[in-house]
Write a structure and sequence with these properties.
The chain is α+β, with helices and mostly antiparallel strands and about 290 residues long. The protein contains nine helices and nine strands. The radius of gyration is 28 Å and the shape is elongated. The two termini are about 35 Å apart.
């Protein structure tokens, strides 16, 4: 090879190598910046969603306590509950008052889809806004067992009686002298929980947030799923990490087998995994274009 050719090649290498190094450094720095910004945004969304969930549960809990401590249940209804019999001639009027008159406006505003009173001794449903539930026993349900002593939220579970997911709040029902006469229970509307999850920042087309329970089942519908709630399991890296009582970030494949950047968080009190994800292809598109 001629000396001039060798010098030309050497000159070309000396010219291109710095550009290649600079290009790689720019790409690496740019990717790192985009990843950090994406993680920060997803983490902020997760924090906001958790706050919204807690506020939603707190508001419904407070509504139940106000109802139980109000004049109707504490004074007028307490004595009737203590000696109530569904076969008594007064039952239709009591059912009508509970299901159609006094609590109904409060229920609609608060997002309660069923309100019922259980007898303190044995958990018999004395009266309910869903008349089909009256006469059934719920003596082993956590919202009754714990609801006799304090306000208690039974986290999302599958109700065999209703054949659908449910979350129920129970609170003590006492008379004017403070004696326990029953448990006032309310089933919350889980579509409100789904709406909280469905709200997005509007800054991403693939951003999604959903909840998963301790059995790896979806608690709220993911965007790409229909009928997944408490019926389809998810075994992603993010979910497994959250179920290990950990919170953090990860780059993994989601329930669609699509690579995502994910923020996972274990909600101890609610016994739920809170997952917020964004497709890696969308997040890294600017740096790939560069």
């Amino acid at each position: 090879m001629r000396l001039s050719t060798k010098l030309s090649i050497l000159f070309l290498l000396l010219s291109v190598a710095p550009l290649g190094i600079l290009g790689y450094l720019a790409y690496s720095n740019g990717r790192g910046t985009i990843e950090r910004e994406t993680v920060d945004r997803l983490r902020s969304i997760n924090i906001l969603k958790e706050a919204q969930i807690n506020r939603w549960i707190h508001d419904n809990t407070r509504t139940m306590e106000i109802l139980a401590g109000g004049a109707y249940f504490r004074e007028k209804f307490a004595d009737e509950v203590a000696q109530h019999d569904q076969g008594h001639p007064s039952h239709p009027s009591i059912h009508r008052e509970v299901s159609e008159q006094y609590p109904k406006p409060v229920m609609e505003q608060a997002g309660l889809i069923e309100l019922f009173v259980l007898r303190a001794d044995d958990g018999l449903i004395l009266v309910s806004t869903d008349e089909r539930q009256e006469g059934k026993y719920r003596e082993s349900m956590p919202y009754f067992v714990n609801g006799r002593d304090r306000t208690y939220v039974q986290n999302v579970y599958y109700s065999m009686a209703l054949q659908q997911p449910a979350m129920t709040i129970g609170t003590p029902l006492r008379d004017g002298r403070g004696r326990l006469v029953g448990v006032l229970a309310g089933r919350v509307d889980l579509t409100d929980l789904s709406r909280i999850m469905e709200q997005t920042s509007g800054l991403s087309q693939t951003e999604k947030t959903y909840l998963v329970n301790t059995f790896n089942f979806f608690v709220t519908e993911p965007p790409a799923g229909k009928g997944f709630t408490l019926k389809k399991s998810v075994q992603t890296e993010g979910v497994q990490a959250a179920l290990s009582r950990r919170s953090g970030i990860g780059f993994y494949e989601d329930y669609r087998a699509v690579p995502v950047i994910g923020i996972y968080h274990w909600m101890e009190e609610r016994e739920l995994c809170l997952i917020t994800e964004m497709d890696q292809s969308e997040a890294l598109a600017p740096i790939h274009a560069f």
